[in-house]
Amino acid sequence: MMGGSNTKSTLAAYIYSSLKEGVAEMTLRTPNLDIKLALVLSAMEADYMLNKDTWVAQRKYFQLAILAYAFALGESSLTSDVLQKLEDLSQDQDDMMYWSTATQSVYKDNGRLYRSLPSGPSDIETASYVILAYTKMDNVIKGQRVLRWLMSQINGAGSFKSTQDTVIGLQAIAAISILIGKSSAGMNLTVDTDGILNKMLVVNDDNKFLYQKEKLPDDIMEVPFTVSGRGVALLTLNWKYNVMRQPLNSVPTFHIKAKTTFVNSNVFDVEIYIRLLVSSSIGQMALVTYKAPSGFVTNTDTIQGADRVENKDGKVIIYVSNMLMSRKEFRIQSTRDKDVASVKDEFVSAEMYYKPGSRSMVKYEIPEEVKLSACQLSKGENDVCPLPGNPSGAPVTTPTKLLLTLMSILMLLTNLN
Fold it and tell me: Whole-angstrom Cα distance, residue 233 to residue 238?
C-alpha cells in the first residue's frame, strides 16, 4: 500500500503519517509517543538530505510526495524544500500540475487532437500526498493546481484506479475542500446549451461541501456557462468516449504458463508458473488471477507461497507482495460443484497491483476427461443419451419400452375388432 515504492524511507513516512494523524484525531494514547515520533522525523530528515539528489535524478515522485506530507505533519523545516523539488519535477498542462512516469497519449481523429493525461494508482497517490502537504502549509493556490488534475482522473463511479488510491485521493480532496470552504461562498453557475438545457447550480454556505451533478444531452459538443458571485468552486466535465488503438512496441510484463493435471472426472489441478520480465517492477506487489470454469469451485487451502488469497464467485486472486524476476509457482485445485456440460477453457492473468495496464494473460486447457457432456452428467438417465453397446448414439429400446409397445399394439388391434 505504498504507491509501488518499497523503500525504508517510504515505509517510515507512511507509518509516521498514520501515527501523526492518529495523534491529531486524539485516538492514540501511547507513552512517550511524541519523543519516538520526533526521533523518526529526525531520521527521515537525515535520510532525505543524504539521498535527495539521487531521488530527484531517479524521479522518485511518490517517495518525495509522501515525505513532503510526513514533513508537513511534523512541521519540519525541510517541507518547503521537498515541495520545491516536486514542483521542479512536475508536469504541467492546462494549469494542472501532476507527476507521472507514463507517456502522454495523443490521438487524432477527424482533425481533432485528443490528449489522454496518464495516470496510474501511484500517480494518484503522489498527487494526493502533495495536496495534503500543501493543505498543511495552507497553500491553496498550488494545491488547487494539483487538485484540478486529480479531479480529472475520477471515473464515472466516483473512484480512481484502485482501493488504496481512492482512499487517499478522497482524503486529499476532502482536506483541501475544507481549507477552501473556510471562506463564505455565494455563487451561481448557469449552464445554457442552446435552449436544450438551462440549469443553474447554486453554491452557498449550506451546500458548498456537497457534490452537484447534472446530466447533459448526449449529442452536445459545447457547454457554455457563466459564473457570478463570490467563492471558489471546481467545475469538471466528464465525457465518455471509446478510442480504438493498438499499443506500439509493448513489452509483456509477465511470462505465464498454466499446466493442467487430470485427477478424476470431477477434479483437476492447475499449476501456474509466472516470471516477471520488467526489471523496473521488481519488489512491487503483483496479482495473479485464476478463473475457475463454470460449475467448479476452487480450494484455496492448497495454494502455497502467496501473501494473501481471495476467492469470490469462482475467481481466485493471489497477492504477491514482493515480486522478483525469479519464477513463482502456484498449484490450484478445482472441483465440480454443479453439473455444467462441456465446460470451456478459462484464463490465468497476472498484473502489477499499481499498474493495471500491465496485465498478461494465458488460457489454460481443461482436461478432456473433465469436460463431461450432458449425457455423461445425467449418467444415461436421459432417454436420448446413447447407452453402452450403442456407439452410434441412436436411442435403444429397453425391454420395458418393448413390452409397453407390444401392449399398445394389442390394445389397438382389439379396438379395431
Answer: 16
Kindly tell me the burial class for residue 264, based on how many C-beta atoms sit within 10 Å of its own C-beta (0-12, 13-18, 19 or more): exposed
Return the SS3 of 80: helix
Which cell numbers hold the place of 321?
507482495
Provide the mean pLDDT of the chain: 80
pLDDT of 86:
96
Angle between helices 61-73 and 33-57 (to 10 degrees): 150
Q: How many CB atoms lie within 10 A of CB 352?
A: 25
Kind plus residue range of the DSSP H or E element containing 203: strand 198-204
Domains in the chain, CATH or no CATH each: 8-180 (1.50.10.20), 183-243 (2.20.210), 254-370 (2.60.40.690), 386-416 (no CATH)
For residues 165 and 99, what is the distance between their CA atoms, to the nearest angstrom?
Answer: 14
| Residue 126 pLDDT > 90 | yes
Residue for grid cell 490528449? 115
pLDDT, tens digit, 9 for 90 and up, residues 385-417:
654 444 444 444 444 444 444 455 555 555 555
Q: What angle do CA 356, 360, 366 make, to 5 degrees?
A: 125
pTM over 0.70: no
Instruction: Answer yes or no: is pLDDT of 110 > 70.
Output: no
Secondary structure (DSSP) of 302-352: G--S-SEEEEETTEEEEEESS--SS-EEEEEEEEE-S--SSPPPEEEEEEE
User: Strands 286-291 and 267-276, how do they pair?
Assistant: unpaired
Distance (Å, rounded) from C-alpha 142 to C-alpha 3? 22
In this structure, the dihedral spanned by the alpha carbons of residues 40, 42, 46 and 47, taken in order and rounded to 10 degrees, is 20
Contacts of 171 (CB under 8 A, 6+ apart): 128, 132
pLDDT by residue (tens digit) across 200-257?
A: 888 888 887 777 888 777 777 788 888 888 777 777 777 776 655 544 445 678 889 9
Q: At what angle do helices 33-57 and 79-89 cross, to 10 degrees?
A: 30
The dihedral built from the CA positions of residue 46, 47, 53 and 55, taken in this order, carries a sign that is negative
Q: Do residues 14 and 66 touch, judged by C-beta distance below 8 A? A: yes
The residues that bridge with 410 in the sheet, in sequence order, are none
| CB 157 within 8 Å of CB 191 | no
> Using 50, 70 and 90 to split pLDDT, how confident is the model at 129?
very high
User: Both ends of the chain: CA-CA distance in Å?
Assistant: 90
CA dist 23 and 36 (Å) reads 13
